[in-house]
Amino acid sequence: MTTFPEAGRSVRGGFVLLNPEDGTPMNTIPFQFNPDTLTRTLQPQGIGSEPGDRLEALRLKGPPHETYKFDAEFDATEHPESYPDGLLPVLSSLELTIYPTSVQLSNEDDLAGKGQLEIAPVEAPLLVLVLGPHRLVPVRITDFSVTEEAFDTALSPIRAKVSVGVRVLTVDDLGYVHKGGRLYLGYQGQKETLAKKAQRPIADVGLTTI
Predict the structure, then answer these.
(1) Cα 73–Cα 78–Cα 80 angle in degrees, nearest 5
(2) What is d(CA 111, CA 100) in angstroms, rounded to the nearest whole number?
(3) What percentage of the chain's residues is helix, strand, coil (to nearest 5)?
(4) pLDDT tens, residue by residue, 3-34
């Protein structure tokens, strides 16, 4: 998941599911077409909640809450022979990232039938949003909708748009030892490295000092 095509070729984004225990890839869901637009929202996590709180105004208690929203489009109309079940397999792969497995559901039912309760549900795979070499982001899906726009003779969708909203998982969510926490630190580290390339002197805004 860290290997990308050589310079000059377009990188394809997508999702990678990692085993939460050892961080090994379990499945990859590439986007057929990269999103045309992507909206990111960052909400700072400051300590001071009231205006005029002079002691806390410049303190940050953790990484900002960051969300991504985008549309991923899929089209099987040009090569229907490659999609005997239409887009149902890829759509199912995307949808199952927010499902417990059927085995987990059956186990919960068995425990309930015995009058027992599972104290902690099994940890789900870690979902990583891949948007090029600089953005490998551990996320949780918060919004998911599918618009199916065309169908084959078996009513399987052959053209669809998936609208996805995700929240970035930080070290506050996962800790520093978890694979997702380490991925987040790498993601923030990439931002810090890129930001250094944009540093400019104060003279660029017409000042000599402040």
Answers:
(1) 95
(2) 16
(3) 25, 35, 40
(4) 444 445 678 899 999 998 889 999 999 999 99
